[in-house]
Amino acid sequence: MSEHVLVEREQGLLTLRLNRLDKKNALTRAMYGRMAEVLQQAERDASVRAVLLTGGETCFTSGNDVADFIQAPPSGPDSEVFRFMRALFDFSKPVVAAVSGPAVGIGTTLLLHCDLVYVSRDALLKMPFVNLGLCPEFGSSLILPRLLGHARAAELLLLGESFGGEQALAWGIANQLLDDGAATLARAREMALGFQRLAPSAVLDSKRLMRAPGREELRRVIEEEGALFGQRLRSPEAMEALSAFMQRRPADFSQFV
Ligand code: COA
């Protein structure tokens, strides 16, 4: 529902604020759809100079809504989550993220497609795809091994290990570590607002240049991951893991060979 994504405008800055705290900002199809629409409009609106993504001061997002994954798994490139991630991937203006508390699954993946990321000391990032019987998504299987080396990326993507804000900074996933959620949001807002003092075309040209190397390869990997992710979501392994989450019990993969 649209009240789960608040859209705020302050001068040339457009802020998308996730607002579903009772479910730790878990992302539903409707929320992805709304965010895709807002990003596409912001792309066309020359008065928007930057976008800020946040979940507020206590929680970024717990990732895709698990009930949605079970009841209405995304099917193909026209689904809401793909439309949102494609809009983010293709967004020509700077995207800044403010991350406090949990940033799970796509909540971490999407940070790899932002330009500036500010994290709180209490941030907890995690990509538990294999733990859910799934696989990496939206380029993380290419980007993370290149950024961190295979061994470290394997801890994150195969084991689903979590890491904090300090580690995100040390690994180059984040720009700055702040003491708490309020300071993180304030710093991200300040930096995002700063883009309106810069030469707009120079910013766009520079972002395009920085994102260009390897872009077609990344696009191909995103397609391959997307197709596999869709298959895996419908697999018995994923069904077991997702039902286990809803039933608040550990997943039991012993039945699978
Ligand atoms: N989808 C749907 N509901 C979710 C959710 C998700 N991704 N994450 C949390 N929730 C719901 C919980 O079911 C709970 O709902 P309830 O109050 O109706 O029972 C509520 O949000 C609070 O979650 P809870 O787990 O009690 O909070 P916590 O502070 O103990 O833990 C997290 C927070 C984010 C660490 C934990 O909820 C979590 O690991 N979520 C799953 C994330 C996940 O696997 N996402 C990846 C999808 S690829």
UniProtKB/TrEMBL annotation:
CDD domains: crotonase-like. InterPro entries: ClpP/crotonase-like_dom_sf (IPR029045), ECH/Chromodomain_protein (IPR051053), Enoyl-CoA_hydra/iso (IPR001753), Enoyl-CoA_hydra_C (IPR014748). Keywords: Isomerase, Peroxisome. Coiled coil: none annotated. SUPFAM superfamilies: ClpP/crotonase (SSF52096). It is found in: Peroxisome. PANTHER family: ENOYL-COA DELTA ISOMERASE 2, PTHR43684. This is Enoyl-CoA hydratase. Transmembrane segments: none annotated. It holds the Pfam family ECH_1. Belongs to the enoyl-CoA hydratase/isomerase family.
